[in-house]
Design goal:
- With 373 residues, this protein is of the alpha/beta class.
- 42% of the residues lie in helices and 16% in strands.
- The strands form two sheets. A seven-stranded parallel sheet has the order 3-2-1-4-5-6-7, with helices on both faces. A six-stranded parallel sheet has the order 10-9-8-11-12-13, sandwiched between helices.
- Helix 12 links the parallel strand 11 and strand 12.
Amino acid sequence: MSHLVRPAAGPPAATFLDLPAGSPGGSVELFLDLYTGDKPLIPARAFMLAPTRPEAHLPAGLDLLPVAGKCLEGAAFSRYVAALRRALVTAIDSAQIGVLHLQHLTFGATPALLRALPAHPRIALVHGTDLIFAEAHTDQLQVLRKTARAADVIVVPTGAMADHLLKLAPQIDHRKIVRVPWGIPDQLLTDPPARPARTSTSRLRLLYAGRLTAEKGAERLITGLAPIPGVELSIAAPRAQFHALAPLLQRTGVRARYLGWLRRPQLWKAFTEHDVLVMPSTTLEAMGMVALEAQACGLPVLYQPVPGLNEVVAASGVATDFTHSGALARDLDRLRTAPGLLPALRQAGYANAARFPLTATAQALADLGRQLT
């Protein structure tokens, strides 16, 4: 593992995620991990949208653009991209930039950055939401295909993402596609939080951590857990999304302890206070970063083997079928009662997470940038 080795600095990248600072999501955490902080792994002019309310915990090196009108389709989307481009042109000295890191193949930031800095080499990073939204919105599919043509390199974290991308944009030059796994903070691998001793094993403490959008499968999880005794469910998610689950929780009789939307160190501590992370994703996961961070903290993973997760987690976790309550009950009972199973999964999970240090991701992206410049 390449712990604490920082990539050699070159001209900074320009990169932009058109989400308000403070937004949830794995792509946001990866963005902040790579490009912000006092000593960023990748020197960059890194932009996000200004939040509607002041964000108390802005990292060093993050610039905010006060552009409104974020949307996905039609003339309003064109106006939004034009407004983003104008803001970027004002904010960036193009002579100081070496390469563009396009954080998605879709959404407004990518075409805006391409138009603001049209002469720079382009590395596009693909996330799961790119593919999901391109499938659902014709305008976003067009953005994805245009970006794929314009990019010099298209970086995917898993083979499953490459396969799915090629279904949406079969004309892509396959030679552009490079697999670079996303990484988790090296400090989590070198100095994970201590795991307190478990005093009682009568109930299995389950944790769901992440957004509660449809593709994440929380409704499937709650419905599947309803008839199963001997488990406790905690949920760490955005507050409004958790409140939207209240009718389903009430209807099914599932009691869920709400932990809030946790900052990273708080989430890592929560990992040590549970027995299993549940990931009931319904479609695909770009990389399943929360699974890797959980494994680094000694938390075994029970997951739906969708593309991405079946590649990254594989045999280091337990695959199950959250749509089949009987299968889910059998797997949960086995996790609760089989002697030595949870300790073995903790060991296998840590070994798996240790294959994905963030510095390796940063080094690979920096090497690609140097090749282009």
